[in-house]
Every structure is written in structure tokens, then in C-alpha cells.
Design goal:
The chain has 529 residues and is an alpha+beta fold. The protein folds into two domains: 334 residues, Glycosyltransferase, CATH 1.50.10.20; 135 residues, Trefoil (Acidic Fibroblast Growth Factor, subunit A). It is built from 13 helices and 19 strands. The strands form eight sheets. Strands 1-2-3 form a three-stranded antiparallel beta sheet. A three-stranded antiparallel beta sheet has the order 4-5-6. A three-stranded antiparallel beta sheet has the order 7-11-12. A hairpin with a 2-residue loop joins strand 1 and strand 2. The chain is globular.
């Protein structure tokens, strides 16, 4: 594994050179004004997937210690005792922790922070990025920006994420050696270069390609994501154990050293492809990679690394694990382990600053470590609720109790597409991923279009047809989901105050999904399958 501090010095030198609708016959009754979702004492409804636990405290502490707003720019400083901006890949990883916090909460302040961090990043490190020979750096830059686009809608973030992937693909994918794969560091004549193809570069750029495909539905990017993944699985993944190898050199000699970040990048990558395609092989690969960490890379079950030379460690694994567990309803399997690590993180924090280093099994020292050595702990807490979630979060088909009709986006990806119903099947256009906001409401995201179930123009009229629209997490895209005594769910719009999803008492394929005041009939009761 390369020394990232040494890399920063090399890149710093380089930077100095470049600085610079209702159907007939339906009878409805309106929701009574006093009907509202039941909430727990935490302010989050029971059966929730979001509970602030220590996640808020950890993120707030991280910002209190490291976040800088100065001269119209927003960034994380390099270290406790170094107010210079964190740079290159490290800055991108810092941004991703803020993105994790926004993903958990949907908080408008966090959204603004993500936007400002990404904008400042591009001000300080504007493309072209050819000066950075490390392709995994380009991958980290591009992941942070692609996630930033999905969260804020700022078009330039996606533009630059595409630029980063395209550049790294063009220079890095090579079939002369190893039958493919992306070089970790581009050969450029330096004697200390690593002439190998590593998990870091291939995982990060594969994740980037998936995020770009989710964002613009350009098949070319999904094809590249699949191409890179197939090479990774053949060359750098042990299908028997779930280990992700570090790399392979030009002589086909594998570096079998183990690292949590290699496992984590692969888990995130495999889970993204599973969510996009529905191919269970990706799910199986991700699960094996998670289980390898739990069995082989912990200290008494706790992920911990005290080597100060590895300033990044478990943040990408926290992200990959968190998404896999949430998306695939795996809380029963992994929550106790996630909670064990979260408890260790909090118990071993610096009590004066509430920050925890990478050695989660040991108390955090009071020395002035760099920012990234505290980032993984914050990321882990964003994905570990204080109590085990219920059955709502994750991917479901949403099927009416009346007529077995599933909510369907008609296989379209355009903003404004009216949502319909179709006989329940197993296609991606009938799969919806439910994630939660800090107020307890839910986001309902199509697994086919990656757009949100939306009340057009915040219309509250009975008979309104929901549409899909790019996710923004406004009130017109927030839904209350409440369990009923018969095991079904009532789903109603936050913006209407009572308009519930209704199948219009129809079993006709292609019929509009509707909103209507709550009556409690079977046409308003939905199964989450």
C-alpha cells in the first residue's frame, strides 16, 4: 500500500506547477385534521430507519473541529494543527462524510454544505486533472462530485464527474497486460511508480460509472461499470472467501494484502450494480466481501487500525455496508455488529472534541492527527441507527391490497412521468427504495429511473396523479408510511396533510396511481414486498 502522505507531497509539488387522477365510482372521506404519524420520544416515528443516536454529535464535532468557512469558500482543514485545506483525494473523502450526513438526514443545511464543499473543491482543484497520475484519486474526486450532483442538482458537479471518469478510463484501461483493468498510477517515467492495477482505482472508477448512469441513464457508463467489475471479479476477488486483493502487476503477480477500504469499495460497487440490474450475483459478491471483513479484519469484532500512515481506513466500508444493509433489509444479520463498532467509536472518542481516530478499539490519542484519520468514525455512525430499524427502509415492490397492482414508473426516466400501476412482477420499474429523513418522513426512489415519487407542483387536490422527478427531498417528495393492523401500510404525502396513495379501485394495467383523502379501504392499503 502506498504512503498517502508522500503522495500528497508529490502532488503538492505538481500543483505548484499548475496552480493556478380518480376513477369513476370511488367514494372517499377526508383525513381528520388530528391524524398524524405516531412518533417516538426521539421525534422519529416508530419502525424508523433513522435515529440520530450519536451520528449528529459526531458530525457536528467533526465540523466544529475541522470545517472552515472563509472568503466565500468552504472546506475541511488538513489537520488539528494545520488550517490549510485538505487536498486532492483527502478533500474528496472529507466531502463524502458530509454527503453521508445529508443522506441520513435530508437536512437543508447539510445540503447547502455539500453544495458549498463541492463548489470549493472545484475552485481549488479545477479540471483538467492530468497532473494527478493516480487514477484512484480521480475516482474519489468523481464519486464525491457525482454524489454531490445527486444530492444538490448542481449540473456542473455531474459534468466534472463525467470528465474525471472519461479521462481516467481513456488513459487507464489497458488490455496489453492482465486482459484489462485500470492502472493505479499512470506510467510516467518516475522510478517509484506502482505499475499495477489495483482495487482502489478499479473500484472507485466503477462506482463513479454507476453513479453517472444513475444520474443520466447513459448506457455507455453502465457498460463500462460492468466491464470493470467483470475484470475485478476475475482478477482481484476471491469468490470462495470474499477477499478483495490489493492489486496485480504486469507479470500477473497478485498483491494479496488485505485492506478494509478495498473491501468497502467493492461492496459499494457490487451493491450499486445489484440495485441497478437486479442481478443477484452482485448481491452475493457484496455479502461475501462484508463477511470477510467481519471474520478477518477486526480486533474482537471491532474494525481498528492505529497505523498513522493509513490516514483513510473504514469510511468507504461504512458506506458500502450501510447501503447494502439498508437497501437489502439485512439489519437482523449485521446490526449487532454495526452497533458494536459504533459503541467502540463513541466510547473511545476524545472526550474534549468528540472525535475518534481509526483505531476504534483503543482510546483516541490527543496528538494532532490529520483530518481523514477521524473521518471513518463519523461515516460509520451515519449508517448505524441508535436502534435497529424496522421493515420499511430499503427496496420494495409497493403492491395494492386491492387487485395485486404494483406502483410502476412505466419504465421511463423522464422528469414528470406520471406514475401508474401494473400487475405485480419483479422488474426494476416496480422496485422502489425507501430512505428516511430526520423528520421521520420517507423518500420513495425508483430503482429504474433513480427519480423520486413526487406530488407535482405540491398539488393537494383529490385525484392528483403522482409523478417522478429528480430527488430533491422537498415536502412534495416526502411521504408518511404508517403500518396498519392488517400488516399493510398507508402512504400519504407530507405536502397534502392527508392525501393517501390510492389505486382507484382498479385492476387495469397502466391505470393512474392517485392521491385521495384517507378512507381506509383496500385501495389505499399497500404491501411492501
Amino acid at each position: 500500500m502506498r504512503n498517502r502522505m508522500q503522495q500528497l507531497k508529490l502532488i503538492g509539488a505538481s500543483l505548484a506547477l499548475v496552480a493556478g387522477a380518480l376513477l369513476p365510482g370511488c367514494t372517499k372521506t377526508e383525513l381528520s385534521p388530528d391524524s398524524a404519524p405516531a412518533v417516538a420520544s426521539s421525534g422519529v416515528p416508530a419502525n424508523a430507519a433513522v435515529d440520530p443516536g450519536n451520528a449528529d454529535a459526531a458530525f457536528n464535532a467533526f465540523n466544529n473541529v475541522f470545517l472552515v468557512n472563509s472568503g466565500g469558500q468552504t472546506y475541511y482543514k488538513h489537520a488539528l494543527n494545520d488550517t490549510n485545506p485538505d487536498n486532492t483525494f483527502a478533500a474528496a473523502l472529507d466531502i463524502m462524510v458530509a454527503e453521508d450526513a445529508y443522506e441520513r438526514t435530508g437536512n437543508a443545511t447539510h445540503k447547502t454544505l455539500v453544495n458549498n464543499l463541492c463548489a470549493t473543491f472545484l475552485q481549488k482543484l479545477p479540471p483538467p486533472w492530468a497532473w494527478d497520475g493516480w487514477n484512484d484519486d480521480i475516482g474519489w474526486f468523481s464519486i464525491a462530485l457525482a454524489r454531490g450532483y445527486q444530492m444538490t442538482g448542481t449540473a456542473n458537479f455531474l459534468t466534472q464527474a463525467r470528465y474525471g471518469f472519461d479521462m481516467a478510463w481513456a488513459r487507464g484501461w489497458d488490455t496489453q497486460y492482465n486482459g484489462g483493468g485500470i492502472w493505479e498510477e499512470q506510467p510516467d517515467g518516475r522510478t517509484n511508480q506502482k505499475i499495477s492495477k489495483e482495487s482502489l482505482s478499479n473500484n472507485t472508477l466503477g462506482i463513479t460509472a454507476c453513479l453517472i448512469y444513475q444520474s443520466n441513464h447513459d448506457q455507455w457508463y453502465l457498460d463500462r461499470a460492468t466491464q470493470i467489475y467483470n475484470w475485478m471479479k476475475l482478477n482481484l476477488y476471491d469468490v470462495n472467501t470474499g477477499q478483495v486483493y490489493t492489486g496485480i502487476d504486469r507479470s500477473n503477480v497478485k498483491d494479496s494484502s488485505r485492506a478494509v477500504y478495498n473491501q468497502g469499495g467493492f461492496v459499494e460497487y457490487a451493491n450499486l450494480l445489484y440495485q441497478i440490474t437486479g442481478n443477484v450475483l452482485y448481491y452475493n459478491d457484496a455479502k461475501r466481501a462484508i463477511d470477510f471483513v467481519r471474520s478477518n479484519l477486526t480486533t474482537g469484532g471491532v474494525i481498528s487500525d492505529t497505523d498513522p500512515g493509513r490516514n483513510t481506513w473504514a469510511d468507504e466500508f461504512a458506506r458500502g455496508l450501510g447501503h447494502f444493509v439498508r437497501d437489502n433489509h439485512q439489519w437482523d444479520t449485521y446490526y449487532p455488529w454495526m452497533q458494536q463498532n459504533a459503541t467502540a467509536i463513541w466510547n473511545n472518542r476524545r472526550p474534549d472534541l468528540n472525535i475518534t481516530w481509526n483505531g476504534w478499539a483503543q482510546p483516541t490519542p490527543t496528538t494532532n492527527l490529520i483530518t481523514n484519520q477521524y473521518a471513518s468514525a463519523v461515516a460509520w455512525l451515519q449508517y448505524t441507527p441508535a436502534t435497529k430499524p424496522g421493515n420499511i427502509a430499503g427496496t420494495h415492490a409497493i403492491v395494492s391490497k386491492l387487485g395485486n397492482m404494483a406502483i410502476d414508473n412505466a419504465g421511463l426516466t423522464d422528469n414528470g412521468t406520471g406514475i401508474v400501476q401494473w400487475g405485480a412482477g419483479n422488474n426494476q420499474n416496480q422496485k422502489w427504495n425507501l430512505t428516511q429523513n430526520e423528520d421521520g418522513s420517507w423518500n420513495i426512489i425508483s430503482q429504474q429511473s433513480w427519480k423520486a415519487l413526487d406530488m407535482p407542483n405540491s398539488n393537494i387536490d383529490n385525484g392528483t396523479q403522482p409523478v417522478q422527478w429528480a430527488a430533491g427531498r422537498g415536502t412534495n417528495q416526502r411521504w408518511w408510511v404508517e403500518a396498519q393492523a392488517d400488516g399493510t401500510y398507508r402512504i400519504w404525502s407530507q405536502v397534502t396533510g392527508g392525501g393517501s396513495l390510492d389505486n382507484g379501485t382498479t385492476t387495469t394495467n397502466g391505470a393512474k396511481l392517485l392521491l385521495w383523502g384517507w378512507s381506509g379501504g383496500d385501495q389505499q392499503r399497500w404491501q411492501l414486498r
